[in-house]
Specification:
Blueprint: H1 7-10, H2 13-44, H3 48-67, H4 85-88, H5 91-104, H6 114-125, H7 128-147, H8 151-159, H9 161-188, E1 194-202, E2 205-211, E3 218-222, E4 228-232, E5 235-240, E6 243-248, E7 251-256, E8 262-267, E9 270-276, E10 279-286, E11 289-296, E12 302-309, E13 313-314, E14 318-320, E15 323-330, E16 333-340, E17 343-352, E18 357-364, E19 367-373, E20 378-384, E21 387-396, E22 400-406, E23 410-416, E24 422-429, H10 432-435
Parallel strand pairs: 1-24
Antiparallel strand pairs: 1-2, 2-3, 3-4, 5-6, 6-7, 7-8, 9-10, 10-11, 11-12, 13-15, 14-15, 15-16, 16-17, 18-19, 19-20, 20-21, 22-23, 23-24
């Protein structure tokens, strides 16, 4: 194949570069597609911890193979690209065909185990975008080799063999190290949650979810006179006057928080309730993703607010009056959206690219509060729903800001320590410029 993408093999130097371009584009596209499929397959596997542990083990074995410590065969198809294509097809066509075969990774012989290790890591990560990027780099490397001088192939095949295997061993060990945090989670699990989470507020009454290791979660409602009412075995409270919506093992209940009387129940794999008067908004988890539903408790009728695929995080909604706000976040970016509970178009309030994620909006009396974060820091922002200046009301780099709640005058922020697994609630007062007082 090396001699094919030369001026002699293509007929001229110009045709050579046309062939190299076609080869590289095809190799990148096919390799990225293979990686995306591998990531998608990984996301569907039922036992993710076992997959991650198995992938790390395979990668370590592959690294030992490259150093010669172990003699382990790798999957191999000992054949070259079809030579007859060069005689029958135009240069761009046969070059693209060669690129597709080599970019797939399993169309020809692989002398080293790196490709298969990266493919296994893509399955373990379980993200199509990550898999596409990882294997797309493999396809790009194929194109760079095709564009290099033909002597490079001789160096790799003969004198550079030892160096190639040593370099591959280093890359494989680095890949295994990158997956080690996920392996630790798979073997030992994340810390069991403890402390307070998921704040809610309405008319001077607040609610949190309390986690105690070894016990079922419970919701604690604190009245204006500091009296505390506990609702056991439930989580993720949302308050509206004398009613509270909570997540139960069977779905969502709407109860009177003073007496525990059940006013309404909705069964299913349901999370993130938001209650406002007769409207209950929640997220339903589906096999292929999730959807947000608004239910009129007075009539029992339901309406779909939005629907997303499994690669998108559909966040906890907040309802104020007839408006519901929520976030949608993925590897491509994030958005805070709004829609009326009785229908109408979906409108984007805030949109970000990959670097920053906006999440967990809450809304009250025309004031919008949300969380903005990157890889290291989290900011709690606020502004009037109608627009105007955005104000930063809190910032943290030691804890993860997870959820917000607001009554229009203050913001309740749910913080989580990733190392200890402990949550707490932080309350800040909003600037007078936002509250009008």
């Amino acid at each position: 194949m090396a001699e094919s993408l030369t001026p002699a093999g293509c007929g001229s130097r110009r045709a050579q570069w046309v062939g190299i371009l076609a080869f590289t584009v095809a190799a990148v596209i096919v390799a990225a597609a293979v990686g995306a499929v591998a990531g998608a397959i990984g996301s569907l596997l039922p036992s993710r911890p076992a997959v991650v542990v198995g992938a790390v083990g395979i990668i370590v074995v592959a690294a030992l193979r490259e150093t010669g410590v172990l003699r382990v065969p790798v999957p191999a198809i000992r054949r070259q690209v079809p030579e007859s294509w060069r005689r029958r097809l135009p240069v761009p066509v046969w070059a693209a065909g060669y690129g597709a075969i080599l970019g797939s990774g399993f169309g020809t012989y692989q002398p080293v185990a790196t490709y298969w290790a990266v493919l296994g890591a893509s399955v373990a990560v379980g993200d199509p975008v990550t898999g596409a990027v990882a294997l797309g780099a493999f396809g790009l490397a194929r194109g760079m080799m095709a564009a290099g001088p033909i002597g490079m192939f001789d160096l790799v095949a003969d004198r550079g063999r030892w160096f190639l295997r040593a370099a591959n061993a280093v890359v494989l060990l680095a890949l295994a190290a990158a997956l080690l945090p996920a392996t630790a989670d798979a073997q030992g699990g994340l810390p069991e949650p403890s402390g307070a989470a998921d704040p809610a507020v309405s008319a001077g009454v607040t609610a949190i979810t309390r986690y105690v290791p070894g016990e079922m979660p419970r919701v604690e409602v604190t009245t204006g006179d500091r009296r505390r009412i506990t609702i056991p075995g439930v989580r993720e409270a949302s308050l509206s006057g004398s009613a509270v919506a909570v997540v139960t093992p069977d779905g969502i209940d709407v109860r009177r928080w003073r007496t525990g009387e059940v006013l309404a129940s909705v069964a299913g794999q349901l999370v993130h309730p938001a209650l406002a008067g007769r409207y209950l908004v929640y997220v339903e988890l589906l096999r292929g993703g999730s959807r947000m539903v608004v239910r009129d408790l007075s009539t029992g009728r339901s309406r779909i607010v939005t629907r997303v695929g499994r690669e998108v995080d559909l966040g906890r909604p907040s309802v104020s009056g007839l408006l519901v706000v929520w976030h949608e976040a993925s590897g491509r970016g994030s958005r805070i959206l709004t829609r009326r509970v009785d229908g109408g178009p979906v409108q984007a309030l805030i949109t970000t690219a990959r670097r920053h994620q906006v999440t967990s909006p809450s809304l009250a009396t025309g004031t919008l509060v949300w969380i903005e974060g990157d890889a290291e820091n989290f900011w709690v922002r606020a502004r009037r729903l109608s627009g105007g200046r955005t104000v930063t009301v809190a910032r943290t780099s030691r804890q993860i800001a997870v959820t917000t709640a607001t009554d229009g005058r203050r913001a309740w922020i749910g913080l989580w320590n990733g190392l200890s697994g402990r949550g707490r609630i932080h309350v800040v007062r909003l600037p007078a410029a936002l509250t009008g007082g």
